[in-house]
């Protein structure tokens, strides 16, 4: 495993976590649990914790998380942005035992002169600052050019994002492998960007991506994220959303293969028992089943706890029909 992968995390005063610990993370990590138990919040903490090397990257990550929650096809003005409900100056995160407080270093306003002080406004007042930044995401006015290929919400898949990723895939010479995967999954001959639109060739003609079901788009999103994050960590929120359960095994085979080839660590969330069973089933058939399953539960005192199972423990739990979804 790459030395930069997350193996453990400690979180204090972050969103739903007062004092939270989890360790035993592997290359592929699936997070399960009931709704509103903190599955996405755990991934957000990991993502922010990895982004504290410099403030510019950290505030970029904050904006990425806000945008991942925007359900609109294109970014619009957000007049009242209160989705990210925490005061980050009070939050502490430790990754692999290393202190990653997100308020440790003094803020250098001059660092962001080229961005007209927008990051500084976030530091002074998060809700006001983030709303002002969002107002720049209208029409052609996108001065910050926020690019996110790491934290992906399956509930918010934009076609312009897919188009940009396909262009990058071509530059990295992975186009043939991408088309091979889509051919095996959906009998698709080729995917390309033509006249600024994502087009799919099936049989003898090209058709618009939007003419196909959500399953194609969601598979495509996962595959693109894996290809474009070599030696990195990606976060896939609700990985099974929009994908029929009969395709779960194919999904996990792809995730295992590309993540191994590209040296990518994966965190994903689900609340589907079928998705968890498929995850376990596929991992047992592969020589490198470097996985962990993180079950999020709430204790009687209200604190959230993570039960981390490796491949063997997850397999035993499923064989004995234990509840694995929290």
Describe this protein with a few key phrases:
326 residues; six-stranded mixed β-sheet; four-stranded antiparallel β-sheet; 10 helices
* Sheet with the most strands: spatial strand order: 6-10-11-3-12-13
CATH architecture type: 3-Layer(aba) Sandwich
The CATH topology corresponds to Rossmann fold
Largest sheet: 6 strands, mixed
- Which oligomerization state do the chains in this entry correspond to? single chain
The pLDDT mean sits at: 79
Q: Give me the CATH superfamily.
A: P-loop containing nucleotide triphosphate hydrolases
- Under CATH at level 1, the class stands as Alpha Beta
Strand content bin:
15-25%
Globular, elongated, flat, extended or rod-shaped: what is the shape? globular
Low-confidence segments, given as residue ranges, are: 71-86, 104-116, 137-141
- Report the count of strand segments: 13
Total count of helical runs of at least 4 residues: 10
Give the termini separation.
Answer: 28 Å
What does the radius of gyration come to?
20 Å
What's the quick description here?
This protein has 10 helices and 13 strands.
Question: What layout of secondary structure does this protein have?
Answer:
Blueprint: E1 8-14, E2 17-23, E3 28-33, H1 39-49, H2 55-68, E4 92-95, E5 98-99, H3 118-124, H4 126-134, E6 151-153, H5 159-171, H6 175-186, E7 190-194, E8 197-202, E9 205-208, H7 214-227, E10 233-237, H8 248-262, E11 265-270, H9 273-285, E12 291-298, E13 304-310, H10 311-319
Parallel strand pairs: 3-11, 3-12, 6-10, 10-11
Antiparallel strand pairs: 1-2, 1-4, 4-5, 7-8, 8-9, 12-13
């Amino acid at each position: 495993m790459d030395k930069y992968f997350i193996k453990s995390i400690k979180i204090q005063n972050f969103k739903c976590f007062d004092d939270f610990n989890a360790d035993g993370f592997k290359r592929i990590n699936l997070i399960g649990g009931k709704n509103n138990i903190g599955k996405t919040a755990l991934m957000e903490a990991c993502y922010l914790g990895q982004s504290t090397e410099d403030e510019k990257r950290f505030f970029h990550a904050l904006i990425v998380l806000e945008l991942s929650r925007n359900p609109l096809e294109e970014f619009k003005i957000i007049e009242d942005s209160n989705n990210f409900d925490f005061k980050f100056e009070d939050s502490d995160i430790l990754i692999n035992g290393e202190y990653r407080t997100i308020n440790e270093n003094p803020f250098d306003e001059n660092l962001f002169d080229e961005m007209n002080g927008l990051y500084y406004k976030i530091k002074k007042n998060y809700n006001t600052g983030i709303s002002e930044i969002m107002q720049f995401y209208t029409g052609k006015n996108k001065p910050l050019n926020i690019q996110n290929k790491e934290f992906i919400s399956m509930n918010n898949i934009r076609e312009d994002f897919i188009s940009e990723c396909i262009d990058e895939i071509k530059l990295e010479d992975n186009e043939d492998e991408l088309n091979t995967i889509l051919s095996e999954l959906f009998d698709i001959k080729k995917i390309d960007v033509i006249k600024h639109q994502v087009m799919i060739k099936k049989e003898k003609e090209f058709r618009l991506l939007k003419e196909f079901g959500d399953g194609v788009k969601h598979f495509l999103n996962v595959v693109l994220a894996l290809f474009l994050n070599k030696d990195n960590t990606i976060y896939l929120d609700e990985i099974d959303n929009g994908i029929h359960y009969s395709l779960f095994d194919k999904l996990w085979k792809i995730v295992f293969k590309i993540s191994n080839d590209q040296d990518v660590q994966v965190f994903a969330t689900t609340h589907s028992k079928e998705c968890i069973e498929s995850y376990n089933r596929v991992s047992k058939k592969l020589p490198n089943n470097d996985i962990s399953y993180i079950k999020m539960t709430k204790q009687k005192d209200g604190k959230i706890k993570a039960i981390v199972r490796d491949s063997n423990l997850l397999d035993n739990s499923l064989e004995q029909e234990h509840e694995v979804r929290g």
